[in-house]
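RECORD TYPE: protein structure
NAME: Alpha,alpha-phosphotrehalase
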Amino acid sequence: MSQTEQRTAIPQHNIEARFEEPTHGPSTSSEWWRRSVIYQIYPRSFRDTTGNGIGDLPGITAELHHIAALGVDAIWLSPFFASPQKDAGYDVSDYRAVDPIFGTLEDFDALIAEANRLGVKILVDLVPNHCSNEHALFVEALASPKGSSAREHFIFRDGRGVDCQLPPNNWQSHFGGPAWTRITEPDGTPGQYYLHLFDSAQPDFNWDNPAVGDEFESVLRFWLDRGAGGFRVDVAHALIKASGLPDWDGRADGADSPGYPFADAPMFGQPAVHEVYRRWRSICEEYEGERVLCAEANVHPIESMADWVRPDEMHQSFNFPFLHTGWDHAALKAIITRSLKAFGAVNAPSTWVLSNHDVPRHATRLGATAPSPRPGDGLGPQDEQPDIVLGLARARAATLFMLGLPGGAYLYQGEELGLGDNTMLPNEHRQDPSYARTNGERLGRDGCRVPLPWDDSSSSLGFSDSAASWLPQPAEWAKLTRQAQETDPDSTLNFYRNALALRSSSQLGLGNLNWLEDTTNGQLLGFENTGVMVALNLGVEPVALPAGEVLLASSSEALSPAGPEGSAVLLNPNAAVWLRRASS
Ligand code: GLC
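PREDICTED:
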């Protein structure tokens, strides 16, 4: 029996369903992005059709129907542009070309055609803060003299100290080491430094130069003309730097203050950046079909992040504070309340996300039995390994809880299969620049980027027709292929399908949230949205649920009978439920 069919009448309860004041007014808008579910495809790890072990655009086109059938509104496609792949494509050498490892522009057009047929939008990942050091403009800048207009596309400065031996300021790269690299001038002398907030292969553009803005507006139109449904905008808070580039003692990777890394950073959240997005919003509005902009604006506190989604700016912004909140009743309640308030104040939806290509997957994070030795980074073979069973139970519960929230939700490829990270990845496979730039002190993000398991047709679990896989897959994934989960009613895949279908039919994304008063001493976190009670048990004891009809539980082990007569239902620890309460 599937979980949706498994409806249980619950005659008795010990939680009084008293609700607090609404924190989020109902939305009457039909704008799709207010309630969307957007699925992130990381192309190099989705599906390989050429046998080289790297996923490609034809692979996405071939399998897109599986993702559409989940019930998602749009795909966010991580970069597939021409790139030397020093940061897995976030180092773009030509914004108007498809990298040959991923295919051709015609392959992109075919993907759009298939997406249109399936009714799914494709959002392109735009990387405007920096490009690749192989981009024609940077190559030209290096070949041109100091002070030339070619150098003005980037942030070149003279060094400090004797013979300019010191970088222009003390900024650190997000991936470790200084954020400046010294060049050799065309005449062979030691020269200026250029700024790179990320890898030295990713020079930052100079957004004070209007030519840079003009170039990106043209890039925007290029992809909109080809049918892109909009853009996810990479490091959308970083484009403009404070004038004078003042020293800053914080760490750009946030390691000194996890959770609130960038509050006063001179390279993040500068007011002038908002003008850029106002122009981009108006460009999107010239096109039919509600094209959208979504910000990766990792600014704090969340009230500042809401500035990116004011009515004339972007449509959505990723909710990183929610993603970084652990298995913690008070912290979850606080960040959800704050998010709804902050985004509601600018009439924008909040978004919710648990996994992406930059953080350990939530099935791994929530199964950790010891604090991560490197917060925000992956686990490796030397670290205490996560409890996979606990991690999956909590991951499904967290997902059900998240999908019950009003606003937009983001899913990361493979979470619908219950995948965790490859935490046993041998170091010789690591490709994330942060691993090399910190001499292995940081393991980087490869663990969450491992190619997907599709079926048992090849030793790369159907990812490729060959055995090739750019990162090795964990042995236990053989049981987690999409094919293996297809017909199992209790599989994570079918759980996601049920949850997304119910979320849509109950219009939870457009609803509003009323917290359920907690009478369980911080165990049960519950709210009501559009007549559905959503409850998550973060404690260690089962909690009795109010009378009602169970619409969906996070697993077949989520519920158990309350008493010997089996007359009521308990929500077990590490589980969540959607329930329609009995009318009294
Ligand atoms: C964003 C991307 C990340 C990339 C970085 C630099 O944070 O999500 O993967 O490394 O920007 O482009």
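COMMENT: Confidence is low (pLDDT under 50) at residues 1-29.
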